[in-house]
Design brief:
about 300 residues; alpha+beta; 2 domains; 5-stranded antiparallel β-sheet; about 30% helix
């Protein structure tokens, strides 16, 4: 079984020859050329040998049961290929050898062990909506006007799914996943990304619920409190607290107070960590954490804009 995805790196030969690798290549001498498939992040590598040509297509697979790699022979002849696997885990090694003839293909994937049943996470759906919404706005400069109709239809389908399935009457808020009642601070991004206005009744209820149920005694915000199958406990996240400040920007006094609570955890040279220990107030996690600083900048800008509008 492979390590968890959040465990130590197992394939990092770009950084160190002994840091582990997975290779797919012809067993003998070959020449290789690479290109990205049109308007995708799928990489096609063409292997040419004395006995034939094969194309390896690979990409990061994100869907359940997706195969991230496909290999096919595209010319007369026979290719013998090898796939040595040498992860940087306890000296483990493995290797596969297979043969392809013209017109044959094979698919394969490397995956980590699942930590639970697949779920429709609201934040994932929201970011798909954001990607389409921004792509539609950029269609002109991208010369992609012919795609706008399809993008728009998919964007609206995602909006409908989030509005209908992401809201929990029991929780009185948008929640972590469709059909769940657990809160997640990432739901604040519904307001921050412009999916919903901050004064929308359901959005306002979500903001208030996040502050009340995910906030600690210091007024800092947990990402979530639901069981996730991971060992140990997390602290509160400074980024999530800045998210709350940004989502509250229309309520300037509350937004400023939330912002200042999080910003107070900068050290003597102004650097922020990832988390704060809820018992001791000690800084935890990655340090310095760029996401915490990005959250600070975005929240400060949103509050400043709200103050400017209030003065005008």
């Amino acid at each position: 079984m492979l390590p968890r995805f959040d465990g130590p790196s197992v394939f990092a030969r770009l950084l160190d020859d002994d840091a582990g690798h997975l290779s797919v290549r012809p067993a003998g001498e070959f020449a290789a050329t690479r290109r990205y498939l049109d308007q995708t992040m799928a990489l096609a590598t063409t292997f040419t040998t004395a006995t034939g040509v094969a194309v390896l297509t690979d990409a990061l697979a994100v869907g359940r049961n997706d195969r991230g790699h496909a290999l096919g022979a595209g010319s007369p002849g026979v290719l013998v290929l090898s796939a040595p696997v040498a992860p940087a885990v306890d000296g483990a090694t493995a290797s596969a050898r297979f043969t392809l003839r013209a017109g044959e293909s094979a698919g394969f994937a490397l995956a980590h062990a699942s930590s639970g049943e697949p779920r429709d996470f609201l934040y994932s759906k929201l970011l798909c909506w954001v990607a389409l919404d921004r792509a539609i706005a950029l269609a002109g400069p991208l010369a992609a006007g012919d795609r706008v109709e399809g993008w728009t239809a998919t964007r609206e389908a995602i909006r409908t799914a989030i509005c209908e399935r992401g809201w929990s009457e029991r929780a009185g808020a948008y929640t972590q996943a469709f059909g769940a009642d657990d809160l997640d601070a990432s739901s604040l991004m519904l307001a921050i990304t412009g999916f919903l206005p901050g004064d929308d009744p359901r959005m306002k209820a979500t903001i208030d619920a996040t502050a009340e149920r995910l906030g600690d005694e210091r007024g800092l915000v947990y990402r979530y409190r639901a069981a996730d199958g991971l060992e140990g406990d997390e602290g509160t996240f400074l980024l999530c607290t800045f998210w709350l400040a940004q989502a509250l920007a229309g309520e300037i006094t509350a937004a400023r107070a939330t912002f200042e609570r999080a910003a107070a955890y900068a050290n003597d040279v102004g650097l922020l960590a990832e988390e704060v220990d809820t018992d001791t107030g000690e800084l935890l996690g990655n340090f310095p954490q760029a996401l915490s600083h990005i959250g600070l900048v975005n929240a400060a800008w949103a509050i400043s804009e709200a103050e400017a509008r209030a003065r005008s």
